[in-house]
Amino acid sequence: MRSESEVREQYEFLKDELDSDEMRHEGVRKLMTHYKRALGWVLEEEHM
After folding, report:
1. How far apart are the first and last CA of the chain?
2. Other beta carbons within 10 Å of 10
3. Do residues 11 and 40 make contact, with C-beta atoms less than 8 angstroms apart?
4. Which contacts of 19-22 are long-range, i.e. CB under 8 A and separated by 24 or more positions?
5. What is the pTM of this model?
6. Do residues 18 and 36 lie in contact, with contact meaning Cβ atoms separated by under 8 Å?
7. Rounded distance, CA 26 to CA 48, Å?
8. What domain of life is recorded for the organism (predicted)?
9. Could you report the per-residue pLDDT of 5-45, keeping only the tens digit for each?
10. Which terminus of the chain, N or C, has fewer Cβ atoms within 10 Å?
11. Chain center to CA of 22
């Protein structure tokens, strides 16, 4: 299992990547959005 800091670091990286202009392709954008959402759920569940 990954540590909270590793998961948080990946989450922040994905958030920045999704905001960049290089992520224009809709399929990639949808995939990354789902991954980002899943990481967010993991972080929320661990801290409830």
Report:
1. 18
2. 14
3. yes
4. none
5. 0.46
6. yes
7. 33
8. Archaea
9. 888 888 888 888 777 776 677 777 787 788 888 888 777 77
10. C
11. 16
- Amino acid identity, residue 10? Q
CA 28, CA 7: separation in Å to the nearest integer? 20
| Three-class DSSP labels, the chain | CCCHHHHHHHHHHHHHHHHCCCCCCHHHHHHHHHHHHHHHHHHHHHCC
Residue 24, amino acid? R
Give CA–CA dist 8/43, Å, rounded: 8
